[in-house]
Write a structure and sequence with these properties.
Low-confidence stretches: none
Mean pLDDT: 85
Strand order of the largest sheet: 1-2
Structural class: alpha+beta
Shape: flat
Number of helices: 1
Order of helices and strands: HEE
Length: about 55
């Protein structure tokens, strides 16, 4: 079975980059922190927060 790719409408994509897109402000307290996220299939994803400078 093949899945069709999911496309995002151009307007919706632009909304994600808008200044008021509900993105949390940068926090220096989180710089350098790492998180491991575990998916249902057993995969592990590591997220490392870098400086916003």
């Amino acid at each position: 079975m093949t899945q069709q790719p999911v496309f995002i409408q151009v307007g919706a994509l632009a909304d994600g980059f808008a200044p008021d897109n509900n993105t949390l402000p940068a926090r220096h307290e989180l710089t350098g922190r790492a998180f491991e996220l575990f998916a249902e299939g057993g995969e592990c994803y590591r997220l490392q927060l870098l400086s916003n400078d």
